[in-house]
Amino acid sequence: MQFFKKNHWKEKKEDTPESMFQYHVDSIRGVFRYNLKSFRVWIFLLIVILAWVPFLFLNEYIISQTRTLQVEQQVEELQYQGMALSRQMSRSVYLENVEMPGLNATLNAEINLLADIYDGRILVVNESFRIVKDTYSTDTDKYTISREVLNCFKKGEDSRYEYYKEGQYVEFTVPIYDQALKEIKGVLVFSTSTRNIETMVEEQKRKLQIMEVAVCILLSVIAFFASGILLRPFKKLENELNRANQGDMDPIQVPDCQETERIAAVYNESLLRLKHLDESRQEFVSNVSHELKTPITSIRILADSLISMGEAPVELYREFMEDISNEIDRESRIIDDLLEMVRLDRTKAELSVQRVNMNDLLESVLKRLKGTAEKRNIVVTLECMRPVVADVDELKFTRVITNLVENAIKYNRDSGSVTVSLNADQTYFYVKIVDTGVGIPDDEVGKVFERFYRVDKARSRETGGTGLGLAICKDIVQLHHGVIRVSSDFGVGTTFVVRIPLVYIP
Ligand code: ADP
């Protein structure tokens, strides 16, 4: 596990004690922050905490249970002895003979012996709460009204005891009955040391603590390896991504767990899209080179032919020069279209949108193209279903309509017709351009919006087409959040429909 990373240690500035201290504090903080970002550190900590904390509680429980059991056992034993003593005292009317020590000598010896055996103290208290016997002899003839003694006089036999952990002793009482009157005549107060129990418990605690440290070390080792094993699929994923980063474009495979499998799937999808993008870019570059080269090749052939001809008539020179001029025009049109496309790509969001009267816009476009249509006796009609005012970039949208109507004229038959209609609903306006031209074969209809795609290359070249017009139209329409669709009947005619929202929402 990488706990330190070079740049997480801050750069030293001056060597004053304060700055050194701050430097170390910042460095440690940096290392902490860095490590807390690691998934592996979290898994490691989680395993250690989840396994260690219950173990700690268990140890505490074991210790407290052992102490209680030991104390209870000692108390039980002594209570048993105490009750036997109490019975003996009742039988030999001990309390009545207190003033005559000779009569109680045997019992007193027994009481002393019992106190010695259990390393404790026994008090005998009579009805007047006077201590008539104290094995320590310090409190004899004094009076006691402790809670335990009062309780014992009141309730009689009681198995409860008071455990004083700090003083390491336990205290309990045993009543002395008057056999004849069946009433409590006195109380035996036992206090016995639990020092030996505490020593034993401490010893056990020490052993458990050693075990705790051992278990903690073992757990840390297990957690270290377990976290490594759990994160192995992510390590593998990192390696695979590094491989891809070095230029290997093969899809990555990390089927070890669902999470990495999903990440790999998303990555592969993006990779595939990038691949397509790269391919289409390459194709575009090769298309551009080809398209730009064609007019230049024609110019070269024309110029070479003129040179090789030597003395040629002026008419022939003029004719060749006209062809050369046409090729130069074509080259410049292609460059213009390419520049337009690049501009559209680059300034995707930059539309100079304004409220435009669409009826007027269509009318002015058709007026401009009327001359071209008339040359081939094509009738161009405008049908406006309603007045439409919409948010569009006037210049760009004019380019779309011009291109579509130009195409409808270019790819039309002589004496054909072009009908442009304008309609709108609550949200959109629609421009429909219907022609009676050559049409587009079914399998090529979907490709006409591709850059440099032409159905009939010769015809397109003849009419000065660059193959970029529809691609530019589609870009502009999409910038307006609209759609452009084409349907065609090969040999009968083609219909283009443009749908644009009336209100432009950037
Ligand atoms: P071009 O400059 O060649 O006209 P476009 O991008 O405008 O390029 O059009 C692409 C191709 O789509 C054209 O070459 C042509 O084959 C076909 N096309 C476009 N409009 C029509 C139409 N109205 N009728 C038939 N074919 C069309």
Structure commentary:
There is one protein chain. This protein is an alpha+beta fold. It is 56% helix and 16% strand. It contains twelve helices and twelve strands. Strands 2-1-5-4-3 form a five-stranded antiparallel β-sheet, sandwiched between helices. A hairpin with a 3-residue loop joins strand 11 and strand 12. Helix 8 packs parallel to helix 12 and helix 10 (394-410) packs antiparallel against helix 12 (469-479). The radius of gyration is 53 Å and the shape is rod-shaped. Bound molecules: adenosine-5'-diphosphate (ADP). Adenosine-5'-diphosphate is lined by residues 403, 407-408, 411, 435, 437-440, 448, 453-456, 460, 465-471, 494. Adenosine-5'-diphosphate (ADP) is lined by residues 403, 407-408, 411, 435, 437-440, 448, 453-456, 460, 465-471, 494.
Feature tags:
506 residues; alpha+beta; 5-stranded antiparallel sheet; 5-stranded mixed sheet; 12 helices; disordered N terminus; binds adenosine-5'-diphosphate
Annotation, overall tally of beta strands? 12
Task: Specify the biggest β-sheet.
Answer: 5 strands, antiparallel
What hetero molecules are bound to the protein chains? Answer: adenosine-5'-diphosphate
Which parts are unreliable, with pLDDT below 50 for 5 consecutive residues or more?
1-10
Q: Cα-atom Rg, whole angstroms?
A: 53 Å
Query: In one word, what is the shape?
Result: rod-shaped
* Helix and strand element order: HHHEEHEEEHHHHEHEEHEEHHEE
Based on secondary structure, the structural category is alpha+beta
Helical percent range? 55-70%
Mean of all residue-level pLDDT scores: 88
